[in-house]
User: What shape does this take?
Amino acid sequence: MSKRILRRGAMLSLAFMLTGQLALASPTLQEGSHGHDVLLLQKKLQSVGYSISTVDGVFGAETERAVAEFQRDNKIRITGVVNNATWRALQKAKKVKWGIDIEKPKPQPKKISPQGPLAPNNAPILARNKVGAIISTARSYIGVPYAFGGTTPKAFDCSGYLQYVFAQNGINIPRTADEQYKLGLRTSSSKQLVPGDLVFFTTYEPGASHCGIYLGEDQFIHASSSRGVRVDALTDDYWAPRFLGGKHIVK
Assistant: This one.
């Protein structure tokens, strides 16, 4: 190999180190990862407008949330894990600046639901004699795939799935997980839940960001981002540490 080629290779390597750009290789990064690649990831997410308070090269819950938000905004399957598709999108990403060229989005008017008034917050909303119908409806959609923003049996996201199941039984609940978390009465323990109650988790952002319907015996049904509508256990290694709490909605 000629000295000229070697010298050119060294210059390219130095340029890469100085610019601090994301590596061309695409390492898979997830919660628990650490090192230089994570540090570059955090800096890039910050530079394009995603909130990370500590840039330390450690892939923690805050970085996972920022990755999930970036995936959501770029229509990448929301996992919180940095895969090839996420790396490629990050390399192309630029911070959005509102101004002459880009009009700032206008607030969207609240839609009036065709199902009637919303169920009240902080109170039970589900008659005990309707629990069986709710669970039966929920189970009938097992296997439906996940899609962010999905609200129909073609594809659901977690809160869209709950809203649809309850609407099929004449109960109108809010659209998002954080708003659904205002329903019912908070339980201090999962042992106080009864079938038909709601369960909530903290995943890609603080607070209630994932939800499901409690089935009893520590089982819940939900629209998971990885495998669509399915039944999982509250004691699962993934869900147990992310469990935010249950809301008792059965009268």
